[in-house]
Amino acid sequence: MLLQQLINGLTLGGVYAIIALGYTMVYGILELINFAHGEIYMLGAYLGIIFLGIFTSLGLTAANFPLALLLTVLMTVLFCSAYGFTMEKVAYKPLRNAPRLSPLISAIGVSIFLQNYVMLTQGATDKVFPYRYGETHIRFLSVDLTALQAAIIITSALLMTGLHLFQKTRMGKAMRATAQDKTMAALVGINVDTIISMTFIIGAGLAAVAGIMVASYYGIVNYSIGYMAGIKAFTAAVLGGIGSIPGAMLGGILLGLIESIGAAYISSEYKDVYAFIVLLIILLIRPSGILGGYSEEKV
Amino acid sequence: MKGVVQDQARSSRKSIAQRARESAGRSVMLRSFFIAAWAALLFLPFHGIRSALVLFAGIFAGLPVMQSAMRLGGPGEWMQRLPGFRAFTLRSFPFLRTSALPVFLLALFVLPFTLKDYYLDVLVMSGIYMLLALGLNVIVGFTGLLNLGFAAFYAIGAYTYALLNTKFGLGFWPSLPLSAVAATLSGLLLAVPALRLRGDYLAIVTLGFGEILRIVLNNWDSLTNGPNGISGIAPPFLFGISLGSLNFYYYLVLGLVLLSVLIIRRVKSSRVGRAWIAIRENEIAASSVGVNVTRYKLYAFAFGTFWAGIAGALFAAKMRFVSPESFTFMESVFILSMVILGGIGNIYGALAGAFILVLLPEALRDVQMYRMLLLGAGLVLLMIFRPQGILGGRKGVRIRG
Amino acid sequence: MFVLEARELTKHFGGLKALEAVSFKVKEGAIHSIIGPNGAGKTTLFNCLTGVTRPTRGSIHFSGQEISRLQPHEVAELGIARTFQNIRLFPEMTVMENVMVAQHTRTKYGLLSAVLRGSSFMSKERAVREKGFEYLELMGLEDHAEALAGNLPYGSQRRLEIARALATEPKIILLDEPTAGMNPMETLEVMDLIRKVKGLGKTVILIEHDMKLVMGISEWILVLDHGVGIAEGSPEEVRNDPLVIEAYLGRETTH
Q1: Is the dihedral of CA A84, A86, A88, A92 positive or negative?
Q2: Mean pLDDT, to the nearest integer, of A160-180?
Q3: What is the ipTM of this complex?
Q4: Are C171 and C80 within 8 A, CB to CB?
Q5: Domain-embedded: residue A265
Q6: Domain assignment present for A35
Q7: Is A136 exposed, middle or buried (0-12, 13-18, 19+ CB in 10 A)?
Q8: Cα C77 to the chain's mean position, in Å?
Q9: Would you say A164 and A250 are in contact if contact means Cβ atoms under 8 Å apart?
Q10: Helix or strand holding residue C27 (H, E)
Q11: Where does the pLDDT of residue A139 fall: very low under 50, low under 70, confident under 90, or very high at 90 and above?
Q12: What was the pLDDT predicted at B163?
């Protein structure tokens, strides 16, 4: 029973971690809580349904499902990255020197806009994921999990490893340098604007994958899923220490575990509350998170 | 000889200018093309090819026109040229301050006799939102603390009256101060630990508090009747007579709004208000001149949430029904938008913001569906082009992190 | 008679030793200066004295009370005021409001009397305004009382910071590079203003990195270098101290 919950938690946690990476990378560079990041994930879920639907109507899904899925993921990632890129250029870039909370309010605006945009174009009712897959059960160490669950856990792990390796590349190093000190990074010849765009593109791409994973896992999506997932992923980022990439991974997995264990052993009605309670406790006890550094304001 | 040289110089200069203009024209075309193509691409998956093509054509044709219009002044300047967007304060209307003020108040008093119930109802609702916006303005506008869970305190006010009335039979009048006190106390309860946090973290904690409260209201069936809400809440009574008519609510809300404006104005221009604004302007400097920053932030939270409690009790009494649905995160954002639209930190701005945001969707019935869509886009545009809101001073949002 | 005494004041930021066992005494009613090259720990010392940062070790005694653990507003209430190197006014408040806020701890009334506006409230508010005007006059800012502080020219903003510090009615006033970014003319004016402040019976502690500037005005000088007090005493003593010459000249020749 507990082990089973751990697997469920790990699945959920992997998804949170993937979304949390987007929050933490943007916060690391812009010190902005990108409130609309959860909506990118929601768009990813919808786009996954839309593209898979197109491929199904073209007969590709029936002929070669893995290829159809791969193409769906590819298209969704491309489009979500474009959304993330555009979002930064339109709503955040003009506010880069504004008082700190102006871009946050702008981000809330973007979030509301996207949510309602999807509601108006796709309807307020739940959308069903057009194709069920990965429902074969696997027995593993006396735990029962579906192939899809295993795939989600493995994909999350792969994406996290990928991002970790990316950090060691030239671009990744430039990104970390920009997060440390934008002015210095610009002085040593790093194009800060490009780095910021890249951050949004990568974050949105990751959220897109998370969106497809959740859409296929639960089978249904709704225009409002981005808000709650966004808040939870943000909680995960804070839990691990915002700005820290390993922190976001750790925080996401921890939060997933807390939530599924809480839902199983305390009450599933209050499932969504646990994340907030964890968030409140963390912020009040250790605002810098588990892996976050400590900084004192300069006078 | 000299003249020829000058002529040559002039003609070559002209051709350079001409060439520059031509290439600028080309680059505008190219830019519009890329922007139009990009926008069409973004809209493609949700609208299909035909709408995307229409959008492309629209932007491709419209953008150069807009850009040449912009050349006559940036969007900010354009907006300021619109009559409604000129920065003005009450001071620009001296007549309102002196002779016309009594006339204006009198007009407010006779209004119910001239208006249809529907309009009166809208006015009552905008009055309730005015109280909310005024309260939030103390926290966000004066003190610079972003609160994204203000609807929670509104909910506490509403549920306090709903429960006191339906469970204990307590009337509206004794419940009103109790609702306000309940909201204030919960504001303090949240603020005591949360105020140690930096601005954006505080925003998220208030949001989390709002969500927790809403989920609890939704699930604590034995107390709150869950998502079905509490119905059968009594209207106010006076000497055994029910005061449940719309006219009465109008006067009640009007009186409370006027009272709150008076009180908040006075507090603003006292040492308390000055301390709040000093904290917003520069927290370290405020503490260095002796302001107990933590304590005054607490005061701001308590004072702001007090009005949310009052508004909540009014809402419960007017609707005779409360349910968690009325107190979502969107509600908090809606109230915040009123404060921002009107001009953060400006008392009359909060009133104007509440008035506009309640009336506008009612006035534009066809647009109702797009209300939240427009609100979202509006927040972004407001932050970029006019962060100080319609009635704000020069510089605008100065909430610091 | 000493009003302020720091004993073995030490502040470490992680591995960085911003202050290392700095001790000094401040005589009442005199002008003191703390000088040293950039990064010597002068501002950190001010931050410790005013409660903005907590010293890692050591103690600060002010009129016989240990104050190193107090909050900034408590220190201000006890009677230590300061200005900031990077100006920290309340830019969206008027010049007058800036000096009115500063009298926060010197006027006591609650929320209720602010709402009711009784006669005692009115007379207190009038007194706050009048006092504020006096300080503005002293700093030559009375003509700009209703201007927004953020709209003042740079030099006037610096003077408003001093006026605001004075309005808290301190015993000691700490000035953190009050002439930074000023031309020689304005600098001389500020030096005159500092003498005026002393004339009010206040104790002044001044941070400067230009040694020449403080020689004429100070009665006592502390020289910091890399967080360590390398010399202290009268201007003559400090000027001839070999360590000081090395800290200043040695650095300048390596540039």
Answers
A1: negative
A2: 87
A3: 0.91
A4: yes
A5: no
A6: yes
A7: exposed
A8: 14
A9: no
A10: strand C16-27
A11: confident
A12: 95
- For B149, the domain range is 86-385
Beta bridge partners of C22: C9
User: Which residues, other chains included, contact C193 with Cβ-Cβ below 8 Å and sequence gap of 6+?
Assistant: C138, C139, C159, C162
* Angstrom distance (rounded) from CA B29 to CA B66: 12
Neighbours of A66 (CB within 10 A): 9
> Which residues numbered 146-165 in B keep a CB inside 8 Å of some CB on A?
146, 148
Question: Does C147 lie at the interface with B, CB-CB under 8 angstroms?
Answer: no
- Domain membership of residue A287 (yes or no) is no
Least confident of A106-110, A229-233, B102-106, B131-135: B102-106
Q: What is the DSSP letter of A64?
A: -
Coil, strand or helix at A99:
coil
C contacts of B304 (beta carbons < 8 Å):
none
**pLDDT > 60? residue C255:** no
Average pLDDT over all residues of chain A: 86
Q: How far is A26 from chain C (nearest CA, A)?
A: 27
pLDDT for res B397: 41
Residues sharing a CB contact under 8 Å with residue B136, sequence separation 6 or more, in sequence order: B147, B150, B304, B308, B335, B336, B338, B339, B350
User: Pick from B188, B161, B173, B399: which is nearest to B306 by CA?
Assistant: B188
Whether residue B368 lies inside any domain: the answer is: yes
Q: CA C7, CA C234: separation in Å to the nearest integer?
A: 20
Evaluate the CA torsion angle A248, A251, A257, A258 in order and state its sign. Answer: negative
* Burial class of residue C121 (count of CB atoms within 10 Å of its CB; 0-12, 13-18, 19+): buried
Q: Are residues B21 and B168 in the same domain?
A: no
What's the angle, vertex CA C13, arms to CA C8 and CA C16, rounded to 5? 85
Residue ending a domain, among C169, C197, C226, is C169
pLDDT per position as a tens digit, B283-315 = 999 999 999 999 999 999 999 999 999 999 999
Query: Does B263 contact C72 at a Cβ distance shorter than 8 Å?
Result: no
The one-letter code for the residue type at B18 is Q
Inter-chain residue contact A299 with C13, CB threshold 8 Å:
no
- The C-alpha angle A43, A45, A51, rounded to 5 degrees, equals 95
Distance CA B149, CA B330 (A): 9
Q: Give mean pLDDT, residues A80-84.
A: 95
Other CB atoms within 10 Å distance of the CB of residue C17: 16
Provide the residue range defining the domain that includes C127: 94-169
Chains within contact range of chain C (3+ C-beta pairs < 8 Å) = A, B
Checking if the pLDDT of B395 tops 60, the result is no
Give the model confidence (pLDDT) of B260-277 as tens digits: 999 999 999 999 999 999
Domain count, chain A: 1
Same domain, B113 and B195: yes
Residues of chain B positioned with their CB less than 8 A from the CB of C89: 281-282, 285
Look at residue A271 and tell me if it is in a domain: no
- Do C66 and C100 share a domain, yes or no? no
